[in-house]
Amino acid sequence: MLTFVIRRLGASVLVLLGASFIIYVLAANAGDPLEDLRASTAINKEQLIQARITLLNLDVPAPLRYFIWLGGVLRFFIGDFDLGKNLAGQEVTALVGSSMWQTIQLVTFATIIAIVIGVAIGMTTALRQYSGYDYSVTFLAFLFFSLPVFFVAVLLKQYVAIGFNNFLADPVIPPVTIVVLSLISGFVWMSIIGGDPKPRLIVFGSATLITAAVLGYLLVTNWFQYPGLGPVLILGLGALGAVAGTAISTGISNRRALYASLVPPVLGALLWYPLQFVMTVQASAWLVPILIGAFLVGGGAIGYAMGLHDKWVAARGGAASGAFVAILLVLDRIMQSWPDYVTNTGGRPIATIGGSTPDLHGSIWIGMLDSYTHLLLPTVALLLISLASYSRYARASLLEVMNQDYVRTARAKGLTERTVIMRHAFRNAMIPIATIIAFDVGGLIGGAIITERIFAWKGMGSLFQDALDHVDMNPLMAFILIVSALTVIANLLADVAYSILDPRIRVG
Asked: Which of 167, 331, 433, 495 is deepest in the core (most CB within 10 A)?
C-alpha cells in the first residue's frame, strides 16, 4: 500500500508540474495585466505601470516567471509558503484562505446532502424498478438536471426567499392548501412503500392524516414565528432516528442494538432543560463540537455496555444515535434564536445574496442561523442540479450488483433482504459512486462560478473568474494548484476506498 501511494504521488507531482507550466504560459500570453493602467489618465501613470511590473516580475518572460512562482510554492517545505500578490498588491495566500472558506461552506453542504439523498433515492428506485415511484423520481431528477442553474436560482429567489419572507408576515395556511399537501404526502409515501393494495392504502391514509395534523399543529402553536423542538420532539425524532438506523444497519430483531440506540434520545430529552442554561450562559464556538462529541462517546459507551455478545454493533448504533440527538439539541437552540434574527433582518430572514448579514449582532446561535439562511438558496440550487447524477449512478450500480451470482447465493442461503442489500450489495454498488465523488472534488473546491455570481458569494469560483478576466496570474495559479492537488488526493483516496468497499480489490 505504501509503495502504491508513493508511486502515485510521484507520478501526480510530475503531471502537476507539466500541466501548471503549460497553463501558466498560455494564461500569461492571453492578455495584458497592465491594460487598465495603460488606459488610465492618472498623472503618475508611468510610475504605476513600473510599480506593477516590479511587483509581479512582468519584465521576466512567462516561462521563466513560472519558476519564480514555483519557488514561492516550494518554500512551503521550509515554512514560508508564498503564492505571491495580485494586481492590487494583496497577498494571494490571504485571498485564497477567505475564498476557500466561503466555497467550503457553500459547496460542501450541497455535495454531502446530494450524495446522501441521491444514494438513498437511487437505492429505493432500484428496489422499486419500473414502478410509478421510479418513473416519477427519474422524471424529476432529469428535469432539474436539464435546467440551467441560473434559472433554478431565480425560481428559488422568487418562491423560496421572497415568497417565504412574505408568508412570515402573516403565516396562515388555507385549509385547501393543507388538504392538497396532505394528499400529496400520502401519494408520495404510498408510492415509496409499495406492496399490495391494502398496505398501500393504510400508508396513504396514515401519511395524509399525519401531515394534516403536523401542519395544523404548526399553525395553532404559531411555530413559524417561534420555532423550536423541545424535549418531546427531540425524544420523538431521536427515537424515530434510532429505530430507522437500527433497521438499516442491524435489523430490529437485534434488541440490544435497538435499546442501546434508544437510550441517547431519552437522555437528550432529560438533559434538555439544564442544557438550555449551558448553551445560553456558556455559549461559545467550542460548545457544539464538545456537545456532539460527548453524546457520541457517551452513546457508544452505553451501547458497548449493553451489547453483551454484540458490543461493537451496539456501540456503533449508540454512538450514531447520540450524535444525532446532539445535532437535534443544537438545532433546537438555533431555532430559538429565530425571533431575534427576524427582527435583526427587518422581517426578511431568508437572504438572496451574500454569505452573511452586514453588522449583525447577537449570540453565536444567531450567527449560525445567519450562515444557514444565506446557505439555503445556493445549497438547494446546487443540490437540485447534482442530485440526478448521484441518484442515477446509484440506481444503475445497485441494479447491476443485485443481478450478480453472489447476491443470488446470499438469498438462497435464507438471508433477509435487508442483510442481502446492506451487507452484500450496497458496498459493491458504492464503488462507482466513490469514483464520481473523487472527480467532483475539483469542482467542490473550485467552486460553482455561476452560482457564486448569482448569489454574490466571494468564493474560489469568483476568485478564478476575476483572475482570468484581469490576467492576474498569481490568484489564477493558486486556484489551479489547490484544485489540482485536491483532485489528485481525492482520486488516491478513492483507490484506497475501493479495497475497503470490496475486499477482493487489492491496492498495490
From this structure: 433
End-to-end CA distance of the chain: 5
Lookup: cell for 403: 443481478
Q: Which residues contact 443 (CB under 8 A, 6 or more apart)?
A: 107
On the 0-12 / 13-18 / 19+ scale of CB atoms within 10 A, 22 is exposed
Please give the model's pTM, rounded to 2 decimal places. 0.81
Cβ–Cβ under 8 Å, residues 362 and 340: yes
Q: What is the DSSP letter of 157?
A: I
What is the b/e burial string over 312-334, where b = at least 16 CB atoms within 10 angstroms of the residue's CB? ebbbbbbbbbbbbbbbbbbbbbb
**Which of 416, 212, 242, 233 lies closest to 318 in space, CA to CA?**
242
Over residues 285-338, the pLDDT tens digits come to 788 889 999 999 999 999 988 877 778 888 988 999 999 999 999 999 999 999
Residues 6 or more apart whose Cβ sits within 8 Å of residue 182: 208, 209, 211, 212, 215
- Residue 179 gets the label, from left (phi > 0), alpha (psi -120 to 50) or beta, of alpha
Helices (H), 337-447: 338-344, 364-402, 405-412, 417-419, 426-446
pLDDT tens profile 105-144: 777 788 888 888 888 888 888 888 888 788 888 888 888 8
Domain assignments of the chain as residue spans, ordered by start: 97-171+222-442, 173-221
What count of residues does the chain have?
Answer: 508
CA angle, 348 as apex, 343 and 351 as ends, to 5°? 120
Secondary structure of residue 85 in the 3-state scheme: strand
Q: Are 417 and 423 in contact (CB under 8 A)?
A: no
Question: For residues 46 and 464, is the Cβ–Cβ distance under 8 A?
Answer: no
Question: Which of 420, 437, 449 shows the shortest CA–CA distance to 487?
Answer: 437
* Cell 437572504, located at residue: 351
Q: How far apart are CA 376 and CA 144, in angstroms?
A: 17
**Euclidean distance between CA atoms 278 and 286, whole angstroms:** 12
- DSSP helix, strand, coil percent of the chain (3-state; round to 5): 80, 0, 20
